[in-house]
Design goal:
With about 130 residues, this protein is α+β, with helices and mostly antiparallel strands. About 20% of the residues lie in helices and about 40% in strands. A hairpin with a 2-residue loop joins strand 5 and strand 6.
Length: about 130
């Protein structure tokens, strides 16, 4: 069993590439370090994506998130780095990452970043009665 953080993101083949569907992942125990003070920052990271050919394997995602524990970076940089790495690994049709950082000095920070493949168009929303 792996007990070390890793930046390697494993993937698997999307079992239904013919259908648009959303995968929602919540990681409520994300931690990194403040680049100014070295103190820990805590966040909940939510990942929503519409897979194309590949999906991200969850154990590798857990170890990937763990790799940020000792990294000092601003919230905006961390959130964009996670998006860039995941897009590079699985090339989704669409991905949105929402990082909700816990209060620090009376200030909450939420960062939302998105990726949309150029040829992908969101399906029309269906409102049921």
């Amino acid at each position: 069993m792996t007990t070390q953080p890793s930046k390697d993101l494993e993937t698997f083949v999307n079992p239904r590439p013919d259908r648009d569907y959303t995968i929602h992942i919540t990681t409520p125990e994300f931690t990194c370090l403040c680049p100014k003070t070295g103190q820990p920052d805590f966040a909940t990271i939510e990942i929503d994506y519409v897979p194309a050919a590949l999906c991200v394997e969850l154990k590798s995602l857990k170890l990937y998130m763990w790799a940020f524990r000792d990294k000092g970076a601003f919230h905006e940089a961390i959130t964009n780095e996670i998006l860039d790495d995941l897009v590079r690994a699985i090339q989704p049709s669409f991905m949105r990452i929402r990082a909700e950082f816990n209060v620090r000095g009376g200030v909450y920070t939420t960062i939302v970043v998105e990726h949309r493949a150029p040829a992908w168009h969101a399906p029309e929303l269906v409102n049921l009665p």
